[in-house]
Amino acid sequence: MKKPNIKIILFDTYMSRIKNSVDSKIFQNLYAKYNNIKRDILDGGDLSCAMFVSSILFWCKIIGDIHTTVTSTVKDMEKSGWYKIKNKKIGAVLVWEPEEFSDGLHAHIGFYIGNNQAISNSSIYKVPKVHHYATSNNRKIIAIYWNKKLDK
């Protein structure tokens, strides 16, 4: 019997992982020793946007590792061939300006899915949610990223 020729379709797999992540609790927790005390450094999903985005990118092999901050996610993305584009397109990674949290300023990151919608981790619901791309807590988009590996 002839062995089948199978080739993963990256873009479709990537988009399905993004869309299927909505309401998933898998990105809510990451435990670490912080000053020798066990702590959930994602605060139960309050600070999970970078974990969400970098996990999807890592699972699709278009980034080097999983991250807990927007800064480290963007650095890894740029190192992995992601570059800034001017206009949003389906599958692009959006970065919103920093916002003040109890422990300091935090930028925000998510995915553009078309029809003026994005999916990013909600600090209110503590899970990825669909929302208007321009209304992530009224933050301005400061960067849009694309990777040629996602070209169809």
Q: Can you describe what's shown?
A:
By secondary structure, this protein is α+β, with helices and mostly antiparallel strands. The chain has one domain (10-150): endopeptidase fold (from Nostoc punctiforme) (Alpha-Beta Complex), CATH 3.90.1720.10. It is built from three helices and eight strands; from the N terminus they run H-E-E-H-H-E-E-E-E-E-E. It has helices at 10-20, 49-59, 70-79, and strands at 31-34, 37-40, 83-84, 93-101, 104-114, 117-121, 128-132, 141-146. It has a six-stranded antiparallel β-sheet with strand order 3-8-4-5-6-7. A two-stranded antiparallel ribbon has the order 1-2. Strand 5 and strand 6 form a beta hairpin. The longest helix has 11 residues, at 10-20. The mean pLDDT is 94.
Number of domains: 1
Mean pLDDT across the residues is 94
Number of strands: 8
Helix content: 10-25%
Instruction: Please give the count of helices.
Output: 3
CATH topology name: endopeptidase fold (from Nostoc punctiforme)
**Oligomeric state of the chains present here:** single chain
Report the β-strand fraction as a percent range. Answer: 25-35%
Write the H/E string, N to C. HEEHHEEEEEE
Overall shape: it is globular
CATH architecture: Alpha-Beta Complex
Straight-line distance between termini: 31 Å
Structural class computed from helices and strand pairing: alpha+beta
Query: Any idea what the CATH superfamily is called?
Result: endopeptidase domain like (from Nostoc punctiforme)
Any idea of the CATH class? Alpha Beta
Roughly how many Å is the radius of gyration? 16 Å
